[in-house]
Amino acid sequence: MSLPAEEIAAIRANIASRKTRDLIFTGLGILCLAIAMMTIAALFVDMLVTGWERLRPEFFTEFPSRRAAQAGILSAWVGSVLVMIVTASVAVPLGVAAGIWLEEYAPKHWFTDLIEININNLAGVPSIIYGLLALGLFVYTFGLGQSVRTAGLTLALLILPVVIVATREAIRSIPQMIREAAYAMGATKWQTVKDHILPYSMPGILTGIIIGLSRAIGETAPIITIGALTFIAFLPPAPITDVAPYVNFEWLKAPFTVMPIQIFNWTSRPDPAFHQNAAAAGAILVAMTLSMNALAIWLRYRLRKNIKW
Amino acid sequence: MESVMTSMAAASAARPVSARLAKRADRHVKERIIEAILFAAAAISVFVTLGILYVLLKESFVFFSQVPLWDYLTDTQWTPLFDDAHFGIIVLLSGTAVSSFVALLVAIPIGTTIAIYLSEFASPRAREIAKPILEVLSGIPTVVFGFFALLFVTPILQWFIPSLPGFSLLSAGLVMGIMIIPIVSSISEDAMRAVPMALREGSYAMGATRLQTALRVVFPAAISGIAAAYILGIARAVGETMILAIAAGMQPNLVWNPMEPAATITSFIVQVALGDLPHGSVGYNTIFAAGLTLMLFTLVFNMLGFWLQRRYRERY
Predict the structure, then answer these.
(1) What's the complex ipTM?
(2) Which of A158, A230, B229, B245 is deepest in the core (most CB within 10 A)?
(3) In the prediction, which pLDDT does B260 show?
(4) Are residues B90 and B30 in the same domain?
(5) First vs last Cα of chain A: how many Å apart?
(6) Based on the domain organization, do B81 and B113 belong to the same domain?
(7) Among candidate residues A68, A67, A75, A57, the one with its CA nearest the CA of residue A234
């Protein structure tokens, strides 16, 4: 019992057309990925080309100026570094501790559920809302001023969910037998955490911290909202001094500017000469966040390859 | 028997039980303190939420004691800093809605296609290369995207549409859409990969091609996760600030046409924060009322998104 020739031909044609559609869709998928890639490339190349003239060593050592050709990003990059120091020193201990508690200590309890739902929600809160929180609470209620510490604290709260989630995921991938072995040796919970759980999850946690900081360093909206000045032609007091006690925390209270604010400021001026500066600073900022992301991706890749429980 | 008893007694005399117990009790105290510290760190996240709600509600309360809620919801003008002040939030909402709509028109088709491609078509190697690139896209600072929208995308668009003004919701929305692609694609892909292999095998066994399987079996099975991806994408678009503040202009404008400049809730907050507004003035309180509105919208979208995301996880 064989089919008539025309029916076989029809089926073959049908199969062929279906396979063509598969192929077309594959092409479409690759095209869509290419759009994403081209955007990154266009963005980076555009800024490099526009800002190329300004990308000289003096650009890093000059203060912003009313004359575009003499303006630099000294106060901006120093401000970014100082703010990141505050952010990291608040977000890392808090986030890692919270992650450890949620994974290792948390009882099955309504309050634990509340914390979990809450962290999920915080991760979705728009960054500008954190700016309003900082303006209402840190600036006006606690009187911390429009300073490095206010900005650092604000960004720390913003990236807290990122650090917590990364810590939890890193801890969750450690097999139960590690904990059981430690307990069998008579270790207490904290000894187990400190000597086993934390060291083994360190690469994963580090990845989360880097991704969190790379997000914080590019954040603009919350810092504008706290009312940070955009024209800063001086540096905060140095953290290390030559008189005892050799450290100085005055910089925490100093007004500041950061890279994204400087870029925003230059972009919003009508004079195209300032757009060159914005492009140059933008290229530097993108290079910074991209290399932080690359470091995180590389860390994760290495981690996946090396660890076999 | 008696000899065992005496030897045990001798042993405990040499190393008294009480000493060992005492040491353990000491360990317990330390453990308790550490647990309390860790718990406090976890509880801080709750205080952050409470802090946000407190600040937004407190300042909004002052605002709504001066501006009736009804005017806020129905007025069609937004001029909070003028002498003849009007507070019609609908003006800012229109800017937010139009720009988010444009962004979703870009992000949903492209993001979904990438997700289907990566989950059903791509080789593991291609996936390994594509995913970090998408991650990088989501890691680019939004202020840089804003610069890109204003000084790269807008001139290109003006080449096609000569009447397009220098600031427009269209250009900001397009770039915002590109920025949201990774959110849509990664959550959708996770949802599709969670669909059990047996469903695909059944489909292939019936002679379906990859595309048929992807569109008629995997996609419907993962639909709640994909919907979650779209909704979380909307939440991100609604809360996006810098791209709009830079490329969409900041004048309040009740528009439904993306070819025009307009302010959004977020860019209004930036605009006010850039100026010098005294603490406690109506203008100052206005940004908190606007922030509360924004918070309510994103909260609803996020809750809905997480709920949908949970549903697909529980199903298989």
Answers:
(1) 0.88
(2) B245
(3) 87
(4) no
(5) 58
(6) yes
(7) A75
> B9 falls in which pLDDT band (50, 70, 90)?
low
> Which residues on chain B are in Cβ contact (under 8 Å) with A297?
132, 135
Together in a domain, B56 and B159 = no
CA A236 remoteness from chain centre: 24
pLDDT for A46-82, tens place per residue? 999 988 888 888 888 888 877 777 788 888 898 899 9
A156-193 as b/e, with b when 16 or more CB fall inside 10 Å? bbbbbbbbbbbbbbbbeebeeeebeebeeeebbbbbbb
- Answer yes or no: do A29 and B139 touch at CB < 8 A: no
Domains of chain B: total:
2
Q: What distance in Å separates the CA atoms of residue A30 and residue B171, rounded to the nearest whole number?
A: 24
**Domain regions of chain A by residue span:** 5-52, 57-306
Mutation target to probe the B interface, by most B beta carbons within 10 A, among A32, A112, A117, A155 is A32
pLDDT at B16: 64
Cβ neighbours of A189 in B, within 8 Å: 31, 35
Choosing from B28, B50, B66, the residue where a domain stops is B66
* Full residue range of the structural domain in which residue B136 is found: 74-315
CB pairs < 8 Å spanning A and B? 263
Give the tokens for residue A127: 């960054």
Which run of H or of E encompasses B76? none
A293 vs B54, B135, B305: nearest CB: B135
Nearest residue, CB atoms, A285 vs list B31, B45, B141: B141
Contact A160 B148 (CB under 8 A): no
Asked whether A74 and A63 are in contact (CB, 8 A), the reply is yes
The pLDDT tens digits of the residues spanning A259-304 come to 999 999 888 888 888 899 999 999 999 999 988 888 888 887 777 6
Q: Which homologous superfamily is A57-306 in?
A: MetI-like (1.10.3720.10)
Rounded to whole angstroms, how far apart are CA atoms B138 and A297?
A: 13
In this prediction, residue A171 carries a pLDDT of: 93
Interface of B with A in 6-25 (CB under 8 A): none
- Do residues B232 and B195 share a domain? yes
Provide the 8-state DSSP code for A62: S
Indicate whether B37 and B123 sit together in one domain.
no
